[in-house]
Amino acid sequence: MKTQQVIFVSFLPTAAVKDDSKRGHYREKIKGYMDRAEQIKAHVNQLKEDGKYHEQIRIAEDATGYSYEALFKPYMSSLLTEVWVEDPYIRHTHQLYNFLRFCEMLLKASCKVKKIHLLTSQDEQADSSQQSSALAELKQSLSAQGLTLDLQYSSTIHDREIRFDNGWIIKIGRGLDYFKRHKGRFSVGYCDYDLRQCHETNVDIFHTKHTKTL
């Protein structure tokens, strides 16, 4: 009985030492991870300060989970008040609905966007009355929500770009028109664009302190 007691007592300090050693090891690892995270954050902030920040998101063919909310929300801080959209293809019905959804996303966000600038082109090959009447209706509807839509047309615009006045610039290869056509009015993804399949495209994200002067 005494021998068992001696063995038991002598074992406790060894286990305690091992546990303390493990705790110290894990504490050091966690501290290392936190220090690394702070270094990465500082590096990203410096790149943003220097106007050199660049991130690319690749949307694969038939991918889902890329609604406007999912794509743009990480860059919509509380400082966001003004947005510039340059997209030559806000012409046809589905493209006009895409822009409407984009505007609705801005209205629902926690930031207080007060003005949206849209620069697009008119379709010379078709009757542009649908485009102009739809955008006029949207402008009036947004105004009732306290949001101004500044609409301009260009016959030479080609590139697609979205700029936020908090410094973020998002360039989507296909502009806002990267969703595939729905498979039916009662198919999954008809209403919820997180479930809608996408065309393959790249999204390039930059940051600059001088967005308004671009």
From TrEMBL:
GO cellular component: midbody
Superkingdom classification of source: Eukaryota
A Pfam family matched in the record: MIT_C
GO BP of this protein: midbody abscission
Domain MITD1 C-terminal phospholipase D-like: 65-207
Signal peptide interval: none
PANTHER family, A to Z: MIT DOMAIN-CONTAINING PROTEIN 1
Protein name: MIT domain-containing protein 1 isoform X5
Taxonomic lineage: Eukaryota, Metazoa, Chordata, Craniata, Vertebrata
